[in-house]
Amino acid sequence: MGIEEAIDLFYNYIANERRLSERTVRSYMTNLDDLSKYMEKAQIGSMEELTSRDIREWELQHMGAGESPRTVRWRLSAVSSWLRFLQRHGYYDTDLMAKVVAPKQPRWMPVFFRESETEHLYEEGVFGDDFIGRRDRLMLRLMYETGIRRSEVVGLKEGAVDITALTLKVRGKRNKERMIPIESELAHNISEYIALKQQETGDREWLFVNGSGKPLRPESVNYIVKKYMTKLSRADRISPHVFRHSFATHILSEGGDLMAVKELLGHENLATTEVYTHVTRDHLKDVYRQAHPRGKAKK
Fold first, then answer.
1. Catalytic residue at 188?
2. Which of these is catalytic: 75, 137, 150, 241?
3. Which domains are delineated in the chain?
4. Which of 62, 134, 149, 197 is catalytic?
5. Cα–Cα distances in Å, from 56 out to 21, 51, 68, 74, 145?
6. Residues 226, 169, 268, CA angle at the centre, nearest 5°?
7. What pTM, to 2 d.p., does this model score?
């Protein structure tokens, strides 16, 4: 079977039978087209001629070009899906990926704001005192104090807040709801903000809206976070999700319970939450090295 024919069969399957998104289909095809061009240069004209060594050399070519392990793993994943499809449907009977080893991916460590940086959110003069300034102040404090995702922020409605019970009802991934406790000061701030929002915009449905009373877009949340936090923080990356990382990291660094943090974040897998324990350990080591006399001596 020719290479192009094998790729066309896979394209028809994912685009027309499975009806994957255009973006996903394009991702698969980008990598398979790249492999096809490599094979053409290597004068490999059929699937029968393709070997594990060829795929491995293609992998090494991209690694040699400076691509990250994550990108190379993404490329290999596309090739693996393609070959599995061909095997399952009887077009091909060789397991080439069994001898291909993907590059190890460095342990991912979340970026977080330091506690001294988040304290600025509670200082006078950081935000304006008009509706927009008070909205921005509440939004950033809410993200830091609850750890909710950007998508959950824009999806919040007034009814999600129970001022009396001091809880916030959040609808997360796969439409799963969870209750997050909030402190009385934050609840009071939310109550005051809602009254101002209704007066300024007339909206009585969404929690965070623009000046016209329409719900904020995810891009607007990005802009608001960067507007303030680029001035207040020296973090390597500034985004709404960094508040989520900060929420978890700061709780655990103060001795918070890991299972409780898992539930507050809405994680299904404890392993996803456990990464924050590594962050707090590494952070404590850094503090020791920078501040303790013996830590400095051994650097």
1. no
2. 241
3. 3-99 (1.10.150.130), 115-293 (1.10.443.10)
4. 149
5. 29, 9, 16, 14, 47
6. 80
7. 0.65
Per the residue annotation, which of 197, 244, 245, 250 is the catalytic one?
A: 244
- The residue from 70, 89, 173, 281 that is catalytic is 173
Please identify which of the residues 84, 120, 178, 267 carries the catalytic annotation.
267
Per-position b or e across 41-76, b if 16+ CB within 10 A of its CB: eeebeebeebeeebbeebbeebeeeebeeeebeebb
Active site residue 241: yes
- Burial bucket for residue 113 (CB in 10 Å: 0-12, 13-18, 19+): buried
pLDDT in tens, 197-215: 999 999 999 999 999 999 9
Instruction: Report pLDDT digits (tens) over 279-292.
Output: 666 555 554 465 55
Asked about 244 being catalytic, the answer comes back as yes
Active site residue 56: no
